[in-house]
Each structure stands twice: as structure tokens, then as C-alpha cells.
Amino acid sequence: MADLTEFRDILMEKTGFANIAFTRPSGKPHVSPMWFNMSDEDFKNGIITVNTATGRVKANHLVVGAAVALSLLDPENGYRYLGIDGEVIEAAVGDVAEKHIDLLAKKYLNKDSYPYRKESESRIKISIKINSIHPSMG
Hints:
With 138 residues, this protein is an alpha+beta fold. The chain has 4 helices and 7 strands; from the N terminus they run αβββαβαββαβ. The chain has one domain: Roll (Pnp Oxidase, Chain A), CATH 2.30.110.10.
């Protein structure tokens, strides 16, 4: 796999979105922009994390073992991006997922707590193992 180090800023410092793609059982593709993050340990292990809620299309398809593709644009240079092929390796619910959405709210909204919680929703933290990357330095 190519080196992630050149893209550490996109993966860990900037607040761009990850466009995540997967194939539905019907064979039709689905793409969604999502918040994402990586801890230092995730960076070392090649794991990117996203968060969604139960009942959403993403939640129904981003299950352990699912193949995914992600595209991350540098928010300061749209010609610099990182394409990722990966596989869902974990889908955590409960406190882990709730704390994760709060981390993402801090990153993307500068809020300590995710302000759009719904009582009817349960959050899911999805961990994706990066299998290969397709970089463009723009």
C-alpha cells in the first residue's frame, strides 16, 4: 500500500468530508458524504472511522465484511485527493458510538456534543480497514 503520511493533513487535521460508496444487493451503487476521523493509533493501523444512525441506508449496508470505497478531497485543493478501497471491520453501538459522534461534532461543528441527536436513533461507529489507496497530489 502507498504511504498515508503524505495525506495525514486530509486524514487527521482538515475537516473535509469522506464520500463513501458501496454496492447495494441490487447491484446499484450508493454514495454518501460523511464525517470521518482517525486517531493516531488508527493512522498507524490504517483504519478510518465514520458514524451513522440505525435505519439509514448506510447503516444497513456498512456491515462487517462489506467492501467500500472512499474519496477524500483536500478542502483547500480539490485536485488533491485520496481514494481508498477498504473493508468494514467493526460496527460498534452504544457508548462507543455516542462518544464517537461527539468527537466528530467537535471536529466539524466545534460543539462538545452532537446537537442533532434524536431519541429514536441509535448511533453506530463504523471502522474501515484501508486495503489500498489511490492518491492524487493535484
